[in-house]
């Protein structure tokens, strides 16, 4: 019997329920199924019998509501450019075997989107879907439809430039002399929808990206919904997950609504070694509403959640090891124990959030590098909230490493050190007491 994800059925049901806004003519296309296989593909027919070799090779053929099925393999995009931009609403499903009959995106059949660090290659988001500029024949902007990205692994490690090629510290400037690109200052999955467009990011892994904003960034416009569920973000700068709004009005019925559930976001770095911004596991724009439930938000260099004014309901989230705060609301910094008492933009039904020390099963090689880094930080001389579940030796303990002293130094020889997929994935396969992501399940 064909295997399917339990989550997909639930997601489609949720998105279709109550979605009554009309879809503009441009987005009413029925859509077709495309098939991509690095290992067996050739040409641009994109059928199951004759799949294309890379998503980048058939982007110019895509129409609204097309469904794209991607088999296991390592994908570099067309010409190895390392970035795919799509300008119509589509649904992308990764993690198939080469027969497109079984999906197992975090284990047996990984669809890995990456690139290379070659001079003058693209530094855009690895998957960038933007539909907000599409227009009808009368000039009005297109609206409606649905965008889905499900079961893709984004690894920007091979796209980054590392200091002295040691894979220990990224560099944000190009090196024409050595023919190296800068590390891309962009997210792994960046989606900007149209009005009344529903957007889902499910069962994805994003790692080694160096954006200013989100490793996963979803911008929803008026009347739309965002669903970000069961994703794993590890070792990124900026924000692990960034929920964004494109609506500037005050009509309560049009304010974007997000559900952010069962995600794990770990080791989110500041933008650079001396920056005072970035470094949050999860961030929210103003003028949106979100339910945030059962997420694990840990080891943000700044914090767990940065709320710029969104109306949030926080239910059963885990905060661990965040540097300056667990929750920041505009400029107010709080530990998890103070959120319900002090937050101004929180739904009063919020409950069950907790701070815990947890074991994170990443590879010992990377854990040693991370735990022994020396930080440069303006915050070293600033007064800041001290959350109760952080500290150098606590950090070592969550990796199972021996305890020792550490300090702040004026170098940046370790900053966003490369972590491999095999080293990172064990930390995303199982939740902690139901909080965090889980390896995507299949139903027989």
TrEMBL record:
Source domain of life is Bacteria
User: What is the protein's name according to its record?
Assistant: Right handed beta helix domain-containing protein
Q: Which InterPro entries has this protein been placed in? A: Pectin_lyas_fold (IPR012334), Pectin_lyase_fold/virulence (IPR011050)
Query: Which classification does the entry list for the species?
Result: Bacteria, Pseudomonadati, Bacteroidota, Flavobacteriia, Flavobacteriales
């Amino acid at each position: 019997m064909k295997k399917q994800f339990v989550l997909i059925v639930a997601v489609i049901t949720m998105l279709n329920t109550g979605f009554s806004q009309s879809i503009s003519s441009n987005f009413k296309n029925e859509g077709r199924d495309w098939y991509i296989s690095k290992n067996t593909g050739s040409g641009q027919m994109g059928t199951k019998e004759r799949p294309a070799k890379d998503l980048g090779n058939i982007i110019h053929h895509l129409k609204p509501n097309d469904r794209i099925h991607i088999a296991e393999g390592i994908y570099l995009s067309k010409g190895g450019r390392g970035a795919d931009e799509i300008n119509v609403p589509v649904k992308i499903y990764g993690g198939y075997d080469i027969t497109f009959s079984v999906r197992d995106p975090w284990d047996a059949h990984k669809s890995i989107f990456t690139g290379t660090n070659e001079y003058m290659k693209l530094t855009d988001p690895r998957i960038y879907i933007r539909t907000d500029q599409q227009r009808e024949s009368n000039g009005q902007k297109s609206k409606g439809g649905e965008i889905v990205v499900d079961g893709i692994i984004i690894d920007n490690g091979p796209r980054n430039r590392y200091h002295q090629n040691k894979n220990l510290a990224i560099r944000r400037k190009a090196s024409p002399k050595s023919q190296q690109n800068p590390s891309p200052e962009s997210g792994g999955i960046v989606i900007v929808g149209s009005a009344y467009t529903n957007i889902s990011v499910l069962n994805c892994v994003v790692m080694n990206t160096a954006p200013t904003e989100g490793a996963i960034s979803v911008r929803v416009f008026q009347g739309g919904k965002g669903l970000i569920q069961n994703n794993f973000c590890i070792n990124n700068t900026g924000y692990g997950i960034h929920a964004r709004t494109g609506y500037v009005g005050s009509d309560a019925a049009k304010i974007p609504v997000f559900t952010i559930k069962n995600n794990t976001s770990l080791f989110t770095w500041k933008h650079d070694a001396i920056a005072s911004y970035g470094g949050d596991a999860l961030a929210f724009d103003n003028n949106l509403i979100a339910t945030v439930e059962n997420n694990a938000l840990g080891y943000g260099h700044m914090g767990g959640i940065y709320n710029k004014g969104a109306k949030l309901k926080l239910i059963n989230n885990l905060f661990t090891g965040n540097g300056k705060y667990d929750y920041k609301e505009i400029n107010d910094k709080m530990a998890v124990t103070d959120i319900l008492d002090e937050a101004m933009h929180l739904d009063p039904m919020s409950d069950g959030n907790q701070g815990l020390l947890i074991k994170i099963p990443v590879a010992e090689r990377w854990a040693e590098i991370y735990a022994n880094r020396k930080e440069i930080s303006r915050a070293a001389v600033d007064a800041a909230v001290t959350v109760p579940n952080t500290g150098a030796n606590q950090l070592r303990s969550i990796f199972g490493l021996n305890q020792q002293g550490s300090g702040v130094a004026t170098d940046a020889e370790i900053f966003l050190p490369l972590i491999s997929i095999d080293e990172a994935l064990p930390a995303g396969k199982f939740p902690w007491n139901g909080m965090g992501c889980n390896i995507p399940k299949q139903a027989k």
